[in-house]
């Protein structure tokens, strides 16, 4: 009888312990630090507006074939872009469009 009470007591303690842990929220997993592979991938997604061709430029948000050609024509007529903001001088490209793509554009 004494063994029976001890076993029941242990089972009770185990079930209470499991019940408390089951109600807890899982710990948040920390966000991994960007490694060199991730940085390299981000750079491969970048578009150099001074060397990009139409096929590359159309990857930018809101840039179709006509605007891509306009960028190239502007670059040929005026030389390389010295700042991303200079894209606003291309016909059909405004400040909002430049801002949407700023993280993808490199010089």
From TrEMBL:
Signal peptide feature range: 1-22
GO molecular function: DNA binding
Keyword field contains Cell inner membrane: no
Keywords tagged on the record: Signal
A biological-process GO annotation: protein secretion by the type II secretion system
Naturally occurring in which organism (per UniProt): Shewanella woodyi (strain ATCC 51908 / MS32)
GO cellular component terms attached to this protein's record: type II protein secretion system complex
Boundaries of every Helix-hairpin-helix DNA-binding motif class domain copy: 55-74, 85-104
NCBIfam families xref list: competence protein ComEA helix-hairpin-helix repeat region (TIGR00426)
PANTHER family: ENDONUCLEASE/EXONUCLEASE/PHOSPHATASE FAMILY DOMAIN-CONTAINING PROTEIN 1, ENDONUCLEASE_EXONUCLEASE_PHOSPHATASE FAMILY DOMAIN-CONTAINING PROTEIN 1
Protein name: Competence protein ComEA helix-hairpin-helix repeat protein
